[in-house]
C-alpha cells in the first residue's frame, strides 16, 4: 500500500512539474496606462524575449533583446514620433505577441491592452528526413509552405486547427534538396525554419 501511495505521489509531482515547465516557456506582458507620451509595460517570465517597435509600413524604430530575466519593466518615449499606427512586438523562441499603439494628430498615445496577434510559434521535431510540425492555441487556420533553396515549392496549404492544434508530418526527400524552408504564415506574419537533411 505504501509503495502505491509513493508511486501516486511521484506521478502527481511529475505531472505538476511538466505543467509548470510548459507554462514557464511563455512570457506575458502587462501594458500600463500611457502617461506623458511614454509607453510603459512589464514583461513577466522574460526568458530570451526580443522586443520590436515599428510603424505600419514595417519600418523598425527600435529593437532589443532583454535577455533572461524573471520580470522586466520598460518604457519608450514616443514624443518624437509622428501621427500614425505603430506596433510593439514581443517574441521568444516559443511565442509572439503584437500590440497596437496609435498616436493621433495631437500627439496623444493610445495602446491596446489586448494583443492584436498572439500565438505560440511552431515547434519542430526532426528525425532523419521526417519533420513534424506542431502548434497549439491556434485560432482558425495558418498557411504552411515548403520550398527548397532554389525556391521550388513542394507544399502550400491553408491548414485549419483542430481543437486549437496543428499537427503536420512531412517526408522530405534529401535527393531533391539537402535543405528545405518551412514557412508558417499567420495574419501577415511569416515564420521560416531551415531544415537541413544532410
Keywords:
16 strands, single chain, mainly beta, 198 residues, 1 helix
Give an overview of the whole structure:
The chain is mostly beta strands. Helices cover 12% and strands 55% of the residues. It contains one helix and 16 strands. The strands form four sheets. Strands 3, 4, 6, 7, 8 and 9 form a six-stranded antiparallel β-sheet that branches. A four-stranded antiparallel β-sheet has the order 13-12-15-16, with no helix packed on it. β6 and β7 form a beta hairpin. The chain is elongated and about 60 Å long. The chain starts with a helix and ends with a strand.
Strand content: over 45%
Oligomer: single chain
Unreliable sequence segments: 1-23
How many DSSP-defined strands? 16
Which of globular, elongated, flat, extended, rod-shaped describes the shape? elongated
Secondary structure elements and their pairing?
Elements: H1 2-24, E1 28-31, E2 38-47, E3 50-55, E4 60-65, E5 68-77, E6 84-91, E7 95-103, E8 109-111, E9 117-120, E10 123-127, E11 130-135, E12 141-148, E13 153-160, E14 166-171, E15 179-186, E16 189-196
Antiparallel strand pairs: 1-2, 2-5, 3-4, 3-6, 6-7, 7-8, 7-9, 10-11, 11-14, 12-13, 12-15, 15-16
Amino acid at each position: 500500500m505504501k509503495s502505491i501511495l509513493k508511486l501516486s505521489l511521484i506521478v502527481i509531482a511529475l505531472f505538476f512539474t511538466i505543467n509548470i515547465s510548459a507554462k514557464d516557456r511563455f512570457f506575458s506582458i502587462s501594458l500600463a496606462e500611457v502617461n506623458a507620451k511614454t509607453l510603459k509595460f512589464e514583461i513577466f517570465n522574460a526568458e530570451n524575449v526580443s522586443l520590436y517597435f515599428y510603424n505600419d509600413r514595417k519600418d523598425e524604430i527600435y529593437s532589443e533583446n532583454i535577455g533572461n530575466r524573471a520580470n522586466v519593466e520598460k518604457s519608450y518615449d514616443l514624443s518624437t514620433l509622428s501621427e500614425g499606427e505603430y506596433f510593439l512586438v514581443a517574441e521568444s523562441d516559443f511565442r509572439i505577441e503584437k500590440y497596437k499603439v496609435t498616436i493621433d494628430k495631437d500627439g496623444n498615445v493610445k495602446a491596446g491592452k489586448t494583443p492584436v496577434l498572439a500565438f505560440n510559434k511552431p515547434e519542430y521535431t526532426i528525425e532523419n528526413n521526417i519533420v513534424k510540425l506542431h502548434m497549439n492555441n491556434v485560432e482558425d487556420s495558418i498557411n504552411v509552405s515548403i520550398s527548397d533553396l532554389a525556391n521550388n515549392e513542394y507544399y502550400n496549404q491553408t491548414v485549419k486547427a483542430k481543437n486549437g492544434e496543428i499537427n503536420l508530418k512531412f517526408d522530405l526527400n534529401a535527393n531533391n534538396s539537402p535543405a528545405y524552408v518551412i514557412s508558417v504564415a499567420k495574419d501577415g506574419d511569416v515564420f521560416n525554419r531551415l531544415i537541413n537533411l544532410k
